[in-house]
Structure formats: C-alpha cells, structure tokens
Amino acid sequence: MNNFVRIVGLGTSGAKVVNDVCKLCEQKSLMNVDFHTIDVGADQLDFENCCCPSFKAMTNNKLMIIVCGLGGLYPYNKLLQLSRSAKAAGWRVGLIMSSPFVFEGSERKQRAELLKKTICDAVDARDFYTVLDCNQVLKGELSKECFNTIYLQVDSLMKNCVLSLLWLSNEDGVISVDYDEFCKGIGPNACLEYKGVNLSNAISLEKINIPKTKIYMVVVSHNCDYTIQEFCDALEGIQHAVEKNTPKEELCFMCSAMQLPGTWSPYAHVWYVNAS
C-alpha cells in the first residue's frame, strides 16, 4: 500500500494556493496526491481531474495538508473540526497558515490572537503534527517558498516526526513579547517545557534586547532527522523569517544570549531546536 497525500485549501486564499500547487504538480507529472477545497466563497475552483504526488519515499500513510489564509478571520473551530474528522478517518494532519504580521494595527492584533488560539488549541490536542507559516497564502499566491513549505510538511509527516514554528516579536500586540503569555492556557507543561525543551526563560525577547522592528522564528523539531541546512533551504526567502543582511556579530550575540539547545541557521532570525 502506497502513501497518499491530500492537500486541502480552506477558504478562498487557500483554494487559490492549492490550485497553483496542482498546476505545478501536473507540470512535473507527479502522482498520488489529490486536492480539495472547502468554503471558497465566490471563487469556485475545479480540482476534479487534478492529482499529483507524494514528494519523497513512499510509506503506508494517509497525509493531509490544510492550507488556510485566515482571510476574514476564518473560524478556527472549523479548522479543528476538519482536522479531527480527518484524524478519526486515519489521516495524519499538517497545517499551513498565513502569518498575521502582514497586517497592521488592530487588525494585526486581532488576527494574531486567532492564530495564537488556533495553534495553542491544536498543539494541546495534538490535532496537527506540523504547523507551518507562509505569508503568501493570504494573498492566494504560490511562491517557491510556499511550495517548499508544503514539501517540508509532507516530508515530515512521512517521517512520523513533529515540526512546529513559533513566531515571536518584540512589538506590542503581535503574538507575544512574553513566551509564557503566548502559551497560557494550553496545559501546565506543553509550552513552558515544549515537548521536553525548556523555552520559558530562553525566549525572553526583552531580555536580549531585540529591536522592535524584528520578528523571529523558533523551530522545534521532534524525531526529525533534518539538518539545519536542509530546513533552511526549504524555508529560504519566507517573509520575516529570512534577513540575510543581519551582521554576524548580532547572530553570535543572540545565539549565546538565548542559550537554547539548538543551532542558528545560516539565515538570520531562524533558530532551530532539535528536541528528539
């Protein structure tokens, strides 16, 4: 029995991205992946004859990737309902959502709260094996980075490992200045010791004096055998996560200040933690 991948576009933006992924897969003559859309509004898209592949070695798994752009503050309950239904049917589920950082002001704060609740609920209930971020989903655009993010999810799901991205910023109203606050309410140990890695004091953005304009990403990997280079190759170019012009001295300072059991990537502002 071969591995099978289903990519689901949730909402109009997610559907547009899935449509582009479908076309890209067709161009490469790949198989064993199908596409579905849910709640796409006026922009109905046809995936009837579009199918394409798993990306790496086959295993006997059914894998589902949900792509959601958070357009119109998509109700997170629908997201969790879809995931739980898929899990009950034997699927392993991953999620790709847009970051709220593409918004400004009160809208950014509102969307950040929704994303925070979605991720915290999902992590606590183990609804998603992977939660990744790609800003371009919001615009209904497929970029090399978004496709690579989907690729990375499929690969991690096949390897039966867990991969999570945590976005942090030193700006008021964005996901969190205080990591404890970001994870409040999802369980006594789920965040302060995120699957065995103590992050509570290590990720104190005020403590290490991150400029207010900077946004950082922490990657937590469990039972995955990615090298940091492989991971960063997959995420190269994603908005906010990659800033190649950061001085090397700043990276070295932050690396020593955070004191995490991880590795700074070759690309600035991406901290990789292997918690296996």
Task: Annotate the secondary structure layout.
Blueprint: E1 4-10, H1 11-27, E2 32-38, E3 51-53, E4 62-68, H2 76-88, E5 92-97, H3 105-125, E6 130-133, H4 144-158, E7 162-169, H5 179-182, E8 193-194, E9 197-198, E10 215-222, H6 228-235, H7 248-258, E11 262-264, E12 270-274
Parallel strand pairs: 1-2, 1-4, 4-5, 5-6, 6-7, 10-12
Antiparallel strand pairs: 2-3, 7-10, 8-9, 11-12
Helix pairs in contact: 2-3
Describe the structure in brief.
Helix content is 32%, strand content 22%.
Descriptive report:
The protein is α/β, with parallel strands linked by helices and 276 residues long. The protein has two domains: 1-160, Rossmann fold (3-Layer(aba) Sandwich), CATH 3.40.50; 169-276, no CATH class. Helices cover 32% and strands 22% of the residues. The chain has helices at residues 11-27, 76-88, 105-125, 144-158, 179-182, 228-235, 248-258; strands spanning 4-10, 32-38, 51-53, 62-68, 92-97, 130-133, 162-169, 193-194, 197-198, 215-222, 262-264, 270-274. A ten-stranded mixed beta sheet has the order 3-2-1-4-5-6-7-10-12-11, sandwiched between helices. It has a two-stranded antiparallel sheet with strand order 8-9. Helix 2 runs parallel beside helix 3 (105-125). It is globular and about 55 Å long. The two termini are 28 Å apart. Mean pLDDT is 51; it is low at 42-59, 132-145, 166-216 and 232-276.
